[in-house]
Amino acid sequence: MLTKRIIPCLDIKNGRTVKGVNFVELRDAGDPVELAKIYAQQGADELVFLDITATNEKRKTLIELVEKVAEAINIPFTVGGGISTVEDVSMLLAAGADKVSINSAAVRNPQIIKQMADEFGSQCIVVAIDSRAVNGKNLVHTHGGSKATTIETEDWIKEVVELGAGEILLTSMDHDGTKAGFADELLSKVSQLVNVPVIASGGAGNMQHFVDTFKNGKSDAALAASIFHFKEIGIPELKGFLKQNQIEVRL
Amino acid sequence: MKIAIIKYNAGNIKSVMLALKRLGYEGVLTDDPEEILSADRVIFPGQGEASSAMKYLKDKGLDEVILNIKNPFLGICLGLQLLCKHSEEGDTNCLGIFDTEVKKFPNQLKVPHMGWNSVEHNNDACFSGIKPASYFYFVHSYFADICEQTIAQTDYMLSFSTVLKKDNYLAIQPHPEKSADGGEQFLLNFIKQH
């Protein structure tokens, strides 16, 4: 059976991990390659690298990092953050990334999704969506969730899949950082709207939240950052707990 | 040990090179017939679309080269599908090493079939050190039907061929280069076979 995936997310700035990490095994806690290797060894199913660098040097340092990660780990990984052109995607895939995720650029110009999918195949184009509830509607937000649009999340998801998105990474801004659980109601709704995998993001606080998002949210994968980085939850124990709860995982 | 990786218009070739490097081997990316035919091992990776890939292989004469290889040969993902008789993707006549058809997953499933799924195998030497029901990483929208040459299979609503074997030709649908320790073991078994 196809398993549910557990995906740690690493925020990257200037080629280094940001947000503190609490790993005694790490010689250099800011080295994304070392952290990636540990997660791969612990049984992470995939990794996501989100680049939040805002400088002109961004592209070069990111490409160098992707090359090092691709050399070091034997599981798939996705790279996101500021990707806006077919050329960006081409360079990241050539450097060894398995998938790329696009967010604000797709909202600005939805046709870019089609161009990227036509060029590289849907399987490597992830569309990341930041959603927040405003007056009873789920609205797409851009620029790291800071700018509201008038687009409804459910409509946007259908549109991006029609344009060729191969996977959806849905972050609930309402849940992100709360540690109160994933946005399972919204996730379950969108999972039934489209037939591509949906990754739940935002709100993970304990192991039961992962069970809930796989069972109630119908999510195909779950992404989290700080609870893994601060070792509040270890990946082996999380997978054991999921298995006990009759959720198929790779052990 | 000379390992040739066939260069054609399909993506995901770099990750195969890097996996070989982690295992201590150097792969040579090439579309030169002489170099491919003289290699000790040949890997045919790929991610892409069947009809354009077949057209490219034919234009370069690589279809004949692949059919004439005598040393161990490994197709991965699209590389497996192109070794079958025919693919529904672009209604493409393929190389015909394996006596089976490549079909699209039915619409009621999430497509692509993406992620880790378990592989039931027959303990062939290529699975040495790989437990039954081990997990491998898949990304594909088309699958090869089960046939006589199927030596491993996977369920995604229906059962399909995960690994096919005929003479010196071996092919695997998931990506061993991205399938953690089990995938690396599979690649090692392929390289180290006698």
UniProtKB/TrEMBL annotation, chain A:
Main location: cytoplasm
Subcellular location(s) of the protein: Cytoplasm
Catalytic activity: 5-[(5-phospho-1-deoxy-D-ribulos-1-ylimino)methylamino]-1-(5-phospho-beta-D-ribosyl)imidazole-4-carboxamide + L-glutamine = D-erythro-1-(imidazol-4-yl)glycerol 3-phosphate + 5-amino-1-(5-phospho-beta-D-ribosyl)imidazole-4-carboxamide + L-glutamate + H(+)
Enzyme class: lyase
Matches recorded under Pfam families: His_biosynth (PF00977)
Top-level taxon of the source organism: Bacteria
InterPro entries (alphabetical): Aldolase_TIM, His_biosynth, HisF, IGPS_HisA/HisF, RibuloseP-bd_barrel
Active-site residues, as the UniProt record annotates them: 11, 130
Assigned EC number: 4.3.2.10
GO MF, one annotated term: lyase activity
Cellular component per GO, a single term: cytoplasm
BP GO terms, sorted: L-histidine biosynthetic process
Quaternary state and interactors: Heterodimer of HisH and HisF.
PANTHER family: IMIDAZOLE GLYCEROL PHOSPHATE SYNTHASE HISHF, IMIDAZOLE GLYCEROL PHOSPHATE SYNTHASE SUBUNIT HISF/H IGP SYNTHASE SUBUNIT HISF/H
Similarity comment text for this entry: Belongs to the HisA/HisF family.
Function: IGPS catalyzes the conversion of PRFAR and glutamine to IGP, AICAR and glutamate. The HisF subunit catalyzes the cyclization activity that produces IGP and AICAR from PRFAR using the ammonia provided by the HisH subunit.
Protein name from the UniProt record: Imidazole glycerol phosphate synthase subunit HisF
Gene: hisF
UniProtKB/TrEMBL annotation, chain B:
Reactions the enzyme catalyzes: 5-[(5-phospho-1-deoxy-D-ribulos-1-ylimino)methylamino]-1-(5-phospho-beta-D-ribosyl)imidazole-4-carboxamide + L-glutamine = D-erythro-1-(imidazol-4-yl)glycerol 3-phosphate + 5-amino-1-(5-phospho-beta-D-ribosyl)imidazole-4-carboxamide + L-glutamate + H(+); L-glutamine + H2O = L-glutamate + NH4(+)
Keywords for the protein's UniProt record, in alphabetical order: Amino-acid biosynthesis, Cytoplasm, Glutamine amidotransferase, Histidine biosynthesis, Hydrolase, Lyase
Record domain Glutamine amidotransferase: where: 34-189
Location of the active site: 77 (nucleophile), 175, 177
Pathway: Amino-acid biosynthesis; L-histidine biosynthesis; L-histidine from 5-phospho-alpha-D-ribose 1-diphosphate: step 5/9
GO cellular component: cytoplasm
Single annotated GO MF: glutaminase activity
Entry's Gene Ontology BP terms: L-histidine biosynthetic process
Subcellular location(s) per record: Cytoplasm
Keyword Cytoplasm tagged: yes
Cross-referenced HAMAP family: HisH (MF_00278)
NCBIfam families: IMP_synth_hisH
Assembly notes: Heterodimer of HisH and HisF.
The name this protein goes by in its record: Imidazole glycerol phosphate synthase subunit HisH
Lineage: Bacteria, Pseudomonadati, Bacteroidota, Cytophagia, Cytophagales
